[in-house]
Design brief:
alpha/beta; 12 helices; two-stranded antiparallel ribbon; globular
Length: about 325
């Protein structure tokens, strides 16, 4: 009864209408691709299985010694190899350099720097698309906060699914990673929800994504499938990305972002409950009466999600 379907059923009993489906709506990915390979895997899955993928933005962009816009150039290369040169890439918010970028060797020299006007790209998409626009946040909320401030008309059309936040984060002293990367932006987005400028927001928290059930390792079937292809293919790029991550950070990559993508596509792997939440000054999330009302993940079913992810990539 407390699940999303249960609440919708209760509304229908009171005379409400079944909510309009968003299948076919334009899709935006907002990603910090180039760190944990789960971003790149989610981008590839969308590129290969979602014809409506219309725009890829990057957040936590690189700078400093790595040079600006490396995440955007990586996304451009992956989309091109995946047969989606039609999808524009825009280099978004950056902090001047980050230790969470490990994909520098994967970017071909010939891939140019990508445009930087996030607000303009979103405004152009709203002009050419009809109806709702699905937004999947797979990193910091910096670009979303900027769009809500500079393109205020976007709020009523965006249907946001954000990977991030946690009610019971594994380190209680700090916020979940995506919130922590730009706490101010996360506060701005929740404030926009509270003011009614953004509604029907889904938060897929690390409480349900941080699971070994959806972790890719060298012995995983998905890795083995990628390993059958050369480095000049999209499969090879993902495999090489995983190898760099395994060597530099951790022997596995948990598929947080692909699970958020599946939720945005209205696939039935994640259960969501209507909750009121707030962030403290560090960005730590808690239930809070009177806080921002969001659809908050409560549980997930992992084996069918894994099958969907494999099919999205390889079918």
């Amino acid at each position: 009864p407390d699940s999303a379907l249960g609440i919708i059923a209760a509304e229908i009993e009171r005379g409400g209408l079944w909510p309009l489906g968003e299948r076919g709506a334009a899709l935006v990915l907002d990603t910090d691709i180039g760190g944990d390979p789960d971003d790149a895997i989610a981008v590839a899955a969308a590129a290969r299985s979602v014809p409506e993928l219309s725009l890829v933005l990057t957040n936590d962009e690189t700078g400093g010694a790595a040079g600006p816009g490396r995440r955007a150039r990586l996304a451009r290369s992956l989309l091109d190899r995946s047969g989606r040169p039609d999808v524009p890439v825009v280099s978004g918010h950056g902090v001047g350099g980050t230790r969470y970028f490990c994909a520098d060797p994967l970017i071909p020299v010939g891939v140019p720097e990508q445009p930087r006007d996030v607000a303009g790209a979103v405004r152009a998409l709203l002009d050419r698309a009809e109806g709702a626009v699905r937004w999947v946040g797979m990193g910091a909320m910096s670009n979303l906060a900027l769009v809500l401030a500079e393109v205020p008309e976007a709020g009523e059309r965006l249907r946001v699914t954000q990977m991030g936040g946690a009610l019971n984060y594994r380190d209680p002293s700090r916020a979940e990673h995506n919130i922590r990367m730009d706490v101010g932006a996360a506060h701005a987005v929740l404030a926009a929800i509270g003011r009614g400028r953004l509604s029907d927001v889904q938060l897929v928290t690390s409480d349900v994504t941080f699971r070994s059930d959806i972790e890719v390792r060298r012995e995983s079937d998905l890795y083995r499938s990628l390993a059958e292809h050369g480095s000049d293919t999209w499969q090879g790029l993902l495999r090489d990305h995983l190898d760099l991550w395994f060597a530099s950070f951790h022997p596995g990559s948990i598929q947080h972002d692909a699970l958020a993508l599946a939720t945005a596509l209205q696939l039935p792997f994640v259960n969501l409950d209507l909750e009121e939440v707030a962030l403290d000054d560090r960005g730590r999330m808690s239930r809070s009466p009177g806080g921002a009302e969001v659809w908050l993940s409560s549980s997930a079913t992992y084996p069918p999600f894994n099958r969907w992810l494999s099919d999205s990539l390889f079918a």
